[in-house]
Amino acid sequence: MEELVRPWRLGPRGRWWFDVLLAGTLFLIIPFYAVQAMLDGGAAQDVSSTDHVVDLVLVIIQLVPLLWRRRHPVIVYAVVASACGLQVLLLDYPLVSQLSFPIAVYSVARYARPRWGLAALAVGVFGSFLGAYDWMSTVDASSGGTQGGINWSTYVSVVLSLATFPVAAWALGALARTRAAYVDSLIERNEQLRREAEQRAELGATQERARIAREMHDVVAHGLSVIVVQADGARYAAEQDPALAPKALETVAQTAREALAEMRQLLGLLRDGDTLTRPQPRLTDIATLVEETRAGGMTLAATLPDPSLAVPEGVALTSFRVVQEALSNVRKHAGPGAAARVTVTADGGSLEIEVTDDGRGAAAEETRDSSGLGLIGMRERITAHDGILETGPAPGGGFRVYAKMPL
Fold it and tell me: Per the database record, which ranges form the Histidine kinase domain (predicted)?
């Protein structure tokens, strides 16, 4: 899965220097604004040194807190709003540093909880009414009113103009906060999908290792059981009839070579870059398995389906392994001289497998169930294909393995 590209954002150091530049720019504009006011107003503006001190203090209180507007937006807003309130009470003219107020509103809407942003917006709108009233109460008669009076139509226009700043700042801040939350949710979702994909890959690898382990068990158990039986037969033949020993030893060698080849094939799956070069056992290979078992000395009858019968590869492999494991169990647990029967039929959209023997039956049932992974592996294979597996003593004696899988 491709990793989601994160949008470009300023780092902690970049954000700090941006806030320093913002506050510093506003602070540097003030001297030019003061000079221009003096040139425009001249001596008509009787501004004392005390007024300059008050202006400077208010400017500092309004601008310096902006340096911490991201980490403590609510506190910074409270300080800036208080300074703007003092300005309304102490001065009758605006300051350039008042631009810090919409910046503070934006910061609250962007970095604080939504309810704090709404509270900042409400205070900003209320401040627009209060500031417009305070400043317009000093308008002279030439502007359409009387000294100390207010032209209400102009007052409404001024209120709307002033309110535009906090409203726009709040809207931009809320939009930025929503967008950041949306992008973060996309990134988190992408990370979650990536973790889930990795977990599925690990689970698939675990299941594949378990499958290979079952295959290894089937190959080794079947091969070694045949080798042991043939080796015992060769030892007996060497003592009684030496002419039979070479045939038994040939069967041992052939079985060992086949088992070794299958083990190499399975181990190759665990190496990166190796592929399966030998086809998996098919339904027709059960006939070969039966012949090998008969060659090992077991009395075995078999009823097998038409070789041209087409079944899914997974079902064919499972059928072969079930018969292989069942015959291995017959050799190991049924006792000497036990005979077996293998029946594989396909009818009604399902494949049925039955392996029975006339050996020790119930006496060996506990041993078969606890001897290892044989019956457990059978059940896992059958369950994977939505089939059923029945194992236990046969009605007339011996042991029975029955499996049924849908086609």
Answer: 321-407
Within a 10 A sphere around the Cβ of 140, how many other Cβ atoms? 11
pTM above 0.90, yes or no: no
Q: What is the pLDDT of residues 304-319, one digit of tens each?
A: 988 888 888 778 888 8
- Domain positions in the chain are 12-194, 282-407
Among 320, 251, 262, 331, which residue's Cα sits nearest to residue 286?
Answer: 320
Q: What is the pLDDT of residues 354-383, one digit of tens each?
A: 999 988 765 555 555 544 456 777 787 788
In sequence order, what E strands does 62-172 have? none
Confirm if 299 and 339 have CB atoms less than 8 A apart. yes
Fold held by 282-407: Heat Shock Protein 90 (3.30.565)
Q: What is the CA radius of gyration of the chain?
A: 45
Q: Which residues contact 387 (CB under 8 A, 6 or more apart)?
A: 318, 403, 404, 405, 406
Length of the chain measured in residues: 407
